[in-house]
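Subject: Sanity check before I submit

Could someone independently write out the structure tokens for this chain? I want to compare against mine line by line before I put it in a report. The sequence has 480 residues.
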Amino acid sequence: MNQIKIKTHKKFKYTNYILSALLLIIDYLAIVFAEQSAFVFRNVIVTDGGTLHVPRLNFWVVFPLLYLLFINIEQLYNRRTQFWKVIEKIFHASLYAIVAVVIVLYVGKIAASTSRLFIVLLWFFSFIYITIFRYILKKILEKMQLFQIPVLIIGAGKTAELLAQGIINDVGMDYKIIGLLEDNCVKKGILNHFPVLGKFADAEKVIRDTGVQHVFIAAPGLQQDKLTRLIYKVQPLVKNMGIIPNLVCVPMGGIEVESLFNEKLMLLRLKNNLARPLNRYIKTMFDFVVTLVGTVMISPVLLFIALWIYKDSPGHVIFKHMRIGKNGKAFPCYKFRSMCVDAKAKLEELLETDPEAKAEWERDFKLRNDPRVTKSGAFLRKTSLDELPQIFNVLKGEMSLVGPRPIIQEELERYGEYVGDYLMVKPGITGMWQVSGRSDIDYEERVLLDSWYVRNWSVWTDIVMLFKTFKVVLLRKGAY
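---
Independent answer below. Compare away.
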């Protein structure tokens, strides 16, 4: 315990301040690089408008300070959160900052002499550079194990395991788990990598001995009176305390917290985001624009895959399979054909002769070792490229880029009480299931993921899902 005490007090005493200073410096450099890039690209693109000149005071001081101000307002120097959330906050900060830049230009009466293209490019490059610079810095610090904020986790059950996994796997968290407090035995898993420093009753002693100033209580099963006493004990001893309430998997996107002061109650207002017509309209417009641009860009890839499939297994290149869409309406879901032309007959024969395959099919509606899959189809399935033709379903208004996994009629009953969430929206080419392990997770969890997505939707969630899909496809995790 003494070693932990020395380590926490000496090495991490000024971690918050140093890390904030490093982030401020890296953000300033990113903004200056963005200004320079915008300056160069504008002068290259606009050849007949003369060379743009930006006053040095604006270039080195005014514009960067405006950006840093809004980055600070978004709490990106004093709050640790997941990196996808950091990116969202950077986007907001860069947008607000560029509006402030325009206002400054008009107030200073120099807007007429400042290129509009420069302003647009400055916004674009600032968002990209700040994100990349921060990510690289966080990765370097994580690799060197520098300036990570020590945190104590109270609890060692499933919730604590998920919390620890989130801290370890996300570069934006900046936390170093120094140990756990748990009344019961710690099960095998990721938590076994951390020392158990005591039980819940030892919280005050452990906090004083280690000097840790950040504590997460991850024990949602703890009785309310015990949890209340624990909070009252811990809170005066630390700077920051986080609590995971007994609301795991409850849709909390867009949550609003209201304090009923006299009654000493906390009211949580939950929104079902895709139940709102305006949000569905925004999602439809986002899908159409992104898909239209994406289809033009990947058209050579689509043509190459189509030729490969035909050469490998002559027959129809596109396979149409009836799926259930919004409001229960059936539609033909397009895929590149990945199976032999007589796949239906082979499946019926297999299910009649192989009990294990029949049980797997009835459980998951998929087969891990499917004999019907062609050589080209095996690759397309592994990389999920077989689903690319679904972009035409999106353009037809039958599917969305992100949403619940499209299912067949027989699967509807598997959704049980959550079937309303599925039928409320269009199914997606990708979604929570695809980025969370795909075929490695069971059907019940898949249903909960689809329901969670519908109730927590935002445009930013869709953007994050699309980027995560690229990562999952490259790693080929959970696909078969």
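---
OP: Matches mine. For the report I'm noting this point. Residues 13-144 form one domain.
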